[in-house]
């Protein structure tokens, strides 16, 4: 019982005798707040969050149903359990309140034992739900941290084999995050680029070249320009990366579907599996798209599938611009680093050829921010 002393209950009833009765019955068990109207209750609830609300249905001016509807509009008050108090057998009204979100009802005249039992049950359920929510949030945070560490470690593992792309993954991810932040402010993208989706995009971006793990050292570490055969082999890093995430996806979903390679093959697998996307699969879907399609071109001359325009996933279209920008502004064994201005000029020339024209325009509009990132990168590489 001592646990309940701390519980806070708001009782809303327009009949003073009922409030007095509630005070007598519950006052020594719970912290009580009494309100004599719906309006008074809503005013109190703007600044206070009780553990439970006992709400009379039949009240003048604002009835119980209206109060419930108002409370369900706000996330903070929507979660407070509401038990409705009815003075008569009004099944239709009770049903309406339950549909609106009330958790139980108590009929008047109150039977003390029933009232206490129902209040206790709802308080216990509410506490259990809160504990469960806390545990889920904690577990989610741990999984997210683990994902971040694994993404970084895998990306660094790939980069450690590739003698020519020092810092590429880290730099590209930095440009990507700045670009993404700008895109999320534009009307055309702000509905798609939700904070949760952007978090997954930034987490998946470092893994876009993970398929290089399957490229031979003689090609990956070659210090001169690749010949056709070598380049064809290098190009397979997109398929290998895409397949890697597809295999992970299959493991997560426990499906036995055979993995295929080719235009839209992965999307067909997703469709036939009729999988509803969860948080985990959204991340894998994004990581797969980026790994698979980041070398596709707007005009359809890219690889591995040759898809074009908006058929290329948005994540890959965004990434391809910053991926090329970093490649252009970085020194390679076979070329010097281009200046920021030269790299921007090349990207603009390839607008609507290699790159999504709308995305290119927005990338150019944050020219200064990208240049600042490049200068910061160059400064830190001198340390
Ligand atoms: Fe790549």
Features:
Rossmann fold, alpha/beta, 5 strands, 383 residues
Description:
The protein is an alpha/beta fold and 383 residues long. It folds into 2 domains: 2-133, Rossmann fold (3-Layer(aba) Sandwich), CATH 3.40.50.2300; 162-382, Orthogonal Bundle (Hypothetical protein af1432). 60% of the residues lie in helices and 6% in strands. Mean pLDDT is 86; it is low at 255-276. Bound molecules: fe (ii) ion (FE2). The site of fe (ii) ion has 4 residues, from loops.
What is the CATH third-level topology name of the largest domain? Hypothetical protein af1432
Series of secondary-structure elements, N-terminal to C-terminal: HEHEHEHHEHEHHHHHHHHHHHHH
SS class? alpha/beta
Chemical compounds bound to the protein: fe (ii) ion
CATH homology superfamily name of the largest domain: Hypothetical protein af1432
What top-tier CATH class of the largest domain fits best?
Mainly Alpha
Report the strand count: 5
Give Rg in angstroms. Answer: 30 Å
Total helices: the number is 19
Spatial separation of the terminal alpha carbons: 64 Å
- In CATH, the architecture of the largest domain is Orthogonal Bundle
Average pLDDT reading? 86
Helical proportion? 55-70%
Large-scale geometry: elongated
Q: Ranges with pLDDT <50 over ≥5 residues?
A: 255-276
Strand count, sense and closure of the main sheet? 5 strands, parallel
Proportion of residues in β-strands? 5-15%
**Count of separate structural domains:** 2
Strand order of the largest sheet: 2-1-3-4-5
